[in-house]
């Protein structure tokens, strides 16, 4: 396999990660079923790492100390080549640090480390943001993995849904021009959200301050369990009719519609003091559903 890719796994799962964006490119079970969206004309990515923003800023501009910096949707990490820190049969670790190019868009010192691992049939992604600089480090970070819809083992895209334990309705926000706009309550059936392409006609479903840290993506014959820690927000997204569903743990969301101020003061931004780090993690476990 070329140096920019690494494949690893156990008897249950095999994952492939690219140095470009530290991005997951494949997730196959022992039977050969592919659980990860394999990119395509509807959306050319698989599972990008979102950093140093999630979503958009007004006019794609980051304002800091009287200067305007161009920073486009979801930040630049997904388009940068990471350095390998470790590669072995059960996982890998990669690192991205600030340089002259990143500081043009985002004038802060940082390191971003991503660790992928397979264990006992589950895949985990741990992201650590560190501040090696002399001043505060403001950032947002998130995962954006896209999973197959229909899931492997399901006969069709019909009958899929998400089970949110203990939740009666989703307190969602919608996007307008890529920015967070109006609130919307999405009712559930005993915690279950039936999936329909029409759900995404108004773009992503943004779930700020989401009260749970796990879910099950279900279909007749298949199930994907997901859990996360460190991420207070969540997003769901697909393109109507496209065969994928993104399950997105976030720390921060797109900027609120009508807000246009200093990035350090932006709602939802996490600020790290010099010498400090913060770790975020999500995990998925594919399997079969009895229904």
TrEMBL record:
Identification of the protein by name: Aldose 1-epimerase family protein
Species whose genome carries this gene: Roseomonas indoligenes
UniProt-listed Gene3D superfamilies: 2.70.98.10
Species lineage: Bacteria, Pseudomonadati, Pseudomonadota, Alphaproteobacteria, Acetobacterales
InterPro entries assigned to the protein according to its UniProt record, in alphabetical order: Aldose_1/G6P_1-epimerase, Gal_mutarotase_sf_dom, GH-type_carb-bd, LacX
Molecular function as annotated in GO: carbohydrate binding; isomerase activity
Transmembrane segments: none
SUPFAM superfamilies assigned: Galactose mutarotase-like
CDD domains: Aldose_epim_lacX (cd09024)
Domain of life: Bacteria
Pfam families for the chain: Aldose_epim (PF01263)
Gene Ontology annotations of biological process type: carbohydrate metabolic process
């Amino acid at each position: 396999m070329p140096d920019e890719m690494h494949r690893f796994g156990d008897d249950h799962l095999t994952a492939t990660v690219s140095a470009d964006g530290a991005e997951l490119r494949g997730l196959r079970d022992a039977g050969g079923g592919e659980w990860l969206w394999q990119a395509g004309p509807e959306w050319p990515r698989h599972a990008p790492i979102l950093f140093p923003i999630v979503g958009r800023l007004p006019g794609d501009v980051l304002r800091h100390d009287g200067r305007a910096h161009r920073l486009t949707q979801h930040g630049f990490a997904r388009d940068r080549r990471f350095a390998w820190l470790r590669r072995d049969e059960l996982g890998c670790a990669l690192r991205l640090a600030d340089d002259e190019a990143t500081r043009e868009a985002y004038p802060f010192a940082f390191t971003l480390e991503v660790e992928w691992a397979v264990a006992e049939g589950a895949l985990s992604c741990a992201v650590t943001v560190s501040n090696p600089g002399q001043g505060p480090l403001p950032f947002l970070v998130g995962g954006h993995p896209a999973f197959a819809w229909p899931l492997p083992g399901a006969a069709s895209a019909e009958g899929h849904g998400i089970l949110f334990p203990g939740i009666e309705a989703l307190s969602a926000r919608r996007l307008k021009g890529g920015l967070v706009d109006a609130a919307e309550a999405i009712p559930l059936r005993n915690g279950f959200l039936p999936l329909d392409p029409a759900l995404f006609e108004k773009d992503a479903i943004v779930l700020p301050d989401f009260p749970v840290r796990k879910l099950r993506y279900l279909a007749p014959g298949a199930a994907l369990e997901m859990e996360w820690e460190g991420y207070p927000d969540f997003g769901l997204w697909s393109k109507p009719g496209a065969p994928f569903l993104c399950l997105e743990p976030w720390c921060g969301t797109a900027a609120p519609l009508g807000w246009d101020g200093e990035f350090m003061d932006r709602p939802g931004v996490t600020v790290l003091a010099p010498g400090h780090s913060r770790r975020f993690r999500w995990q998925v476990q594919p399997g079969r559903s009895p229904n």
